[in-house]
Every structure is written in structure tokens, then in C-alpha cells.
Design goal:
8-stranded mixed β-sheet, 3 domains, 469 residues, 18 strands, alpha/beta, TIM Barrel, 14 helices, single chain
Length: 469
């Protein structure tokens, strides 16, 4: 049938069966290519590196296979998947990502400056774009425990995070990983009053929790009483005129909001204490001096706490006592210093790593926050210092990684290069404890999050002329 000039046959615009098949085939090929690209992006191989797995023997020249952010295999002669992106690490050293067990630098404010705030969480203050996280990746630190500062009594709740991510939720490994308790007297109070107030707060919290267990219907009764009061208020309001009614309703609404917020804070407070006193949440106890260690041990026993002690520099005299208790210890970042005997006036060099190692204390290193002394800021410096004064190289590297992961309770995922663990890895230019070694590449969850060749700060440091142009 002829089609009149100027008119179009609708069927002519419809694709034929072969054309439709070709279109479907093209779409399927496109989707397949996209899936393959995504697979290639998630599949990674690090080849030819000297591997320090921490758990197990070192591999002189090996390969690490990664898929979906986890380590799938490690060995000398592994077949690399055809779709894997390959990082040639020949002549380089690969080790697990370093773990920072105690730092306040990841928050917008290091401390709340309030003595008793167990209802607060550092998660609300962690800022992913802070220089701390950038510097951590530059130093090969892939996991960090962000903890409230020491200028408090019962501080907020700590959190464990990865050091890379656009948002806090992307970084979180464990929320509420511990509750900070500091035995450093809050400004204006004595050590005696500080301890007394701390003990009083924990005792009252324990009594509240016990009372709550004994009267499970207390909340229902309080709720019923509250409803009754609200109904009485409503009846009273209805007796007034319309303007007064509206004003009263506004005031009542504001009061209700304030009461609701206060109740939420109280619930958070009790929940934090409930976890702390049941051993479900770690007590992170800061002890600035040896005498504070004795007080900490007393609190641990009295309230049956699950502790980690963060020691100040002047705690070396507590080494023998702590060796008997088998409590996880975080040493002060200043591990070597000189002390003058008050009687003989003679100077003595104190080496914390040696003192505590000789006593048989299990401990990990702490790194100074940026802006303080230069050496202790670097994880490799802390480990090398310990080796200089007698610690084995293997133990020093383990304390940077697997021992730190165990202290935080995340060793099932990080701390060593093993099948199934997160692919948090550091590629180094040489031996980890060599002063000339640099971090070449840092990976978090199998993704490259730092490359020295692309580091703008390093480039500006060594090539300032580029910025001048």
C-alpha cells in the first residue's frame, strides 16, 4: 500500500525484530563491560614486594591479591587475575597498616572541657578533612582510635575509625569503643577531690542501674504520672481565653522539647554507664603519674571495669605492679627522658620501653600529636627507639600493628597481612625502621588513599619553585 507524500507510516518508525535484538545485545554488552570495569577496579595485586605479614614468616619477593577490599591470597608465586590492577612493588617493602591506639587530634575539639560528659560521643566531633587524617595516611597509619582528651574526669565515648573516607560513617570501625576516664585533676581541684568525685559518680550510676533492675515497671509508672500531669495541665489551659491558651501551648511545647532532650541525655548517660559497669565497654583510664596507677587499679577492682591504662611519662615506678595485673598498657609518647634524683642530684636516663619490657608488661606505643616533639610523632621513630634500647625488630613492628589491633579488639580485621583481613597496607621504599625510608603508598580497604608522588605538601617541600611559577 502506497503512503501519501507528506505522511509517514508509523510502522516505518518502529524498529524491526533484528534491530531490537541488536539493541538489546548492545545494552547487554555495555552492562557487561561496566561490570568488568567495576570488577577490575575492585581487584588489585601488589607484585614483587618484600612482604612483612607480622603473623608468619617474611616473604622475600611475593604477591598480595586483593578483592572487594579484602586480602584474598598472599604468597611467592601466585597467578594474578587478568582483570586485576597491578601495582609493581619490586624493591619495595609491604607491611600492614599502622594503628594509632590513642589520639584526640581527629576531632574538631580535642576535649569538651567538662568534667562529666559520658553522654557525648567523639563521632559527633570527628572531622574527616582534618590534617590529622591526611598526615596519618602519609605516615602509613590506616586505623585510629579517636579518644577524648585528658582534661576531663569522665569524658565522652571513643570510636575506632579508618583514616580515609569522605564521611564519618564511611570511616567507622567501631562506635563507643571505650569511655575515657582521666585521673588528672580537673582545673581548680585537688587530686583527692577529683578521685572522690569520680568514685561518687560511678557509685551513684551503679545504684541507679541496680534500682532500675529492681523496679522494671518504674518507667511505666513515670510515664503514666507524666500523662496525668499533662492532662491536668490541658484541662487548666482550656479554662483560659484563646490567647492565653495559645501562649500556654507554646510554653508547654518548649518545656516538652526541653524535657525530651534532657531525658535523651539522661538515657545516653545511663546507657554509657551500663556498658561500662558491665564490662561491655572499655574504661580508657589516663594515669599521669605512678600514684594514679594505684588509684586506677583500685577503681578497676571496685567497679569491675574492663580497662586500658594510658600512662603519663612519670609512671615508670609502676612497672612491677602492672606486670602482676596483666592490664593492657599504652605508653607515653615520650619514651626516653632524663630524671634527676632529688636526694643525690644525679641524672638518670629513663627508657620506658626497657623498663616495662624488663618488668614483663604488655604495652603498645603512643604517637605524639602533630605540633609536639618531632620524633615521637612518627610511628617508625617510636619503634626504632625501642629497638635501639633492646627490643627486637619483630616485637617493635608487632606493637605498631597486630598488638595495637588486639588492644583495640579489632585484630580479626586489621593488624596483619592474612587472608580475609581488610586490605589496609603500606608500601615503603625500604626497611620500616630505616631513617631514610618513606611511605610510598597507603591502602585502606583495598583502595589507594595516599601516593607520595601525588602528595602536594611533599611536592611543595622539595620543589618550591613549582609554586613560584
Amino acid at each position: 500500500m502506497a503512503v501519501p507524500i507528506g505522511k509517514t507510516n508509523p510502522r516505518a518508525l518502529m524498529p524491526g525484530r533484528n534491530a531490537r535484538k541488536s539493541g538489546v545485545f548492545a545494552v547487554m554488552m555495555l552492562l557487561s563491560a561496566m561490570c568488568a570495569a567495576a570488577s577490575a577496579q575492585d581487584s588489585l595485586a601488589i607484585r614483587g614486594a618484600h612482604i612483612i605479614p607480622i603473623e608468619g614468616d617474611e616473604i622475600e619477593s611475593g604477591t598480595i591479591l586483593i578483592a572487594d577490599g579484602r586480602i584474598t591470597d598472599i604468597g611467592e608465586e601466585l597467578e594474578i587475575p587478568v582483570d586485576a590492577k597491578v601495582i609493581d612493588a619490586a624493591g619495595k617493602v609491604v607491611m600492614p597498616g599502622i594503628i594509632n591506639v590513642h589520639s584526640s587530634a581527629g576531632m574538631s575539639q580535642s576535649n569538651e572541657q567538662n568534667p562529666i560528659v559520658p553522654f557525648l560521643s567523639v563521632v559527633d566531633s570527628i572531622d574527616p578533612i582534618r590534617t590529622f587524617f591526611e598526615e596519618s595516611r602519609r605516615l602509613g597509619v590506616t586505623t585510629a582510635a579517636v579518644v577524648p582528651g585528658n582534661s576531663t574526669m569522665i569524658g565522652g565515648r571513643a570510636a575506632i575509625v579508618k583514616t580515609a573516607g569522605s564521611y564519618v560513617d564511611d570511616m567507622l570501625v567501631r562506635r563507643d569503643s571505650g569511655l575515657k576516664i582521666s585521673l588528672s585533676p580537673v582545673s581548680g581541684s585537688s587530686r583527692m577531690s577529683h578521685i572522690a568525685r569520680l568514685r561518687k559518680e560511678l557509685t551513684e550510676a551503679r545504684e541507679e542501674i541496680e534500682a532500675e533492675k529492681e523496679s522494671p515497671d518504674k518507667q511505666e509508672k513515670d510515664s503514666a504520672d507524666s500523662k496525668g500531669e499533662e492532662e491536668e495541665e490541658k484541662d487548666a489551659e482550656e479554662e483560659g481565653d484563646q490567647e492565653e491558651e495559645e501562649q500556654d501551648e507554646d510554653d508547654s511545647s518548649d518545656a516538652a522539647d526541653a524535657t525530651s532532650a534532657q531525658q535523651a541525655t539522661e538515657n545516653e548517660r545511663l546507657e554509657a554507664y551500663r556498658k561500662l559497669l558491665s564490662g561491655k565497654m572499655t574504661a580508657i583510664i589516663y594515669c599521669p603519674t605512678a600514684m594514679d596507677v594505684t588509684q586506677a587499679l583500685s577503681l578497676i577492682e571496685e567497679f569491675e571495669l574492663k580497662p586500658v591504662l594510658v600512662l603519663g611519662r612519670d609512671c615508670e615506678e609502676s612497672a612491677e605492679l602492672l606486670a602482676k595485673k596483666k592490664i593492657p598498657i599504652v605508653l607515653d609518647s615520650t619514651m626516653v627522658y632524663w630524671k634527676t634524683d632529688p636526694q643525690t642530684r644525679e641524672d638518670e636516663q629513663i627508657v620506658l620501653t626497657k623498663t616495662f619490657s624488663d618488668a614483663g608488661v604488655d604495652f603498645v606505643f603512643q604517637f605524639a600529636d602533630s605540633g609536639t616533639s618531632l620524633g615521637p610523632h612518627y610511628p617508625s621513630f617510636q619503634a626504632a627507639t625501642a629497638v635501639k634500647f633492646g627490643m627486637s625488630r619483630e616485637d617493635a613492628l608487632r606493637k605498631l600493628t597486630l598488638d595495637a589491633a588486639r588492644l583495640l579488639g579489632v585484630d580479626n580485621a586489621v593488624g596483619s597481612i592474612e587472608k580475609g583481613k581488610d586490605a589496609d597496607l603500606v608500601i615503603l621504599t625500604g626497611d620500616p625502621l630505616d631513617v631514610t625510608t618513606w611511605v610510598e603508598t597507603t591502602l585502606v580497604n583495598g583502595k589507594v588513599v595516599y601516593e607520595r608522588s601525588e602528595d602536594p605538601r611533599i611536592r611543595r617541600l622539595f620543589h618550591p619553585e613549582e609554586d613560584a611559577e
